């Protein structure tokens, strides 16, 4: 097997987006919300229904890799659940580059449809925290008005040469649940120290639940009153 090599070939891939407020002609605020591991965009977007009040456009891109999440083996049928992922450790650099380019396209789509002057909030949940952080730091799209990192720590491999400037251009909010077993106080402290080392401030918000989106807290992240 000495002659075995791996190569890469760019192919066409159709991505799925779920949306709330798609019929709002002139939204006052736009959200891009990025789900976590094993989730699907339409189900994830239900957690944001409290924001769907006729003033906002809320877009949930779905990870490019779907899989059956049930672990019972054997053939899969309509009763088996499906989830999506943004990446795994396999061929990780290519996966990261692909989803950064994908999210740049989502941002460009919103630029075309609602304009760049509408305040934009980008929220990543769980695995989506790593996805959003890498995108805001390394993507081509301008940093959003607000970047929300919910339920996970910063990725260790974020581009530290670009991070201070890019994250310094956005209102940075870190959110955790009081009983979230996946987002430890030690991890949150490491993030605070890392951001301070870059000369950055961030808001730290807590909700009373676990590893989930809290509807009441979402309203506190908005740029709109009420």
Structure summarized in a few sentences:
With 226 residues, this protein is α/β, with parallel strands linked by helices.
What does this protein structure show overall?
By secondary structure, this protein is an alpha/beta fold. It has one domain: Alpha/Beta hydrolase fold, catalytic domain (Rossmann fold, 3-Layer(aba) Sandwich). The protein has helices at residues 41-45, 92-114, 127-138, 163-167, 185-197, 215-221; strands at 17-20, 29-34, 56-61, 65-68, 82-85, 120-125, 146-150, 171-177, 203-207. A seven-stranded mixed sheet has the order 1-3-2-6-7-8-9. The protein has a two-stranded antiparallel sheet with strand order 4-5. α2 crosses α3 (127-138). The longest helix has 23 residues, at 92-114. It is globular, with a radius of gyration of 18 Å. The model has no long low-confidence stretch (mean pLDDT 95).
Strand and helix layout:
Layout: E1 17-20, E2 29-34, H1 41-45, E3 56-61, E4 65-68, E5 82-85, H2 92-114, E6 120-125, H3 127-138, E7 146-150, H4 163-167, E8 171-177, H5 185-197, E9 203-207, H6 215-221
Parallel strand pairs: 2-3, 2-6, 6-7, 7-8, 8-9
Antiparallel strand pairs: 1-3, 4-5
Helix pairs in contact: 2-3
Q: Tell me the domain tally.
A: 1
Describe the biggest sheet? 7 strands, mixed
Strand content: 15-25%
Main sheet strand line-up? 1-3-2-6-7-8-9
CATH architect. name:
3-Layer(aba) Sandwich
Give the helix/strand class.
Answer: alpha/beta
Strand/helix succession: EEHEEEHEHEHEHEH
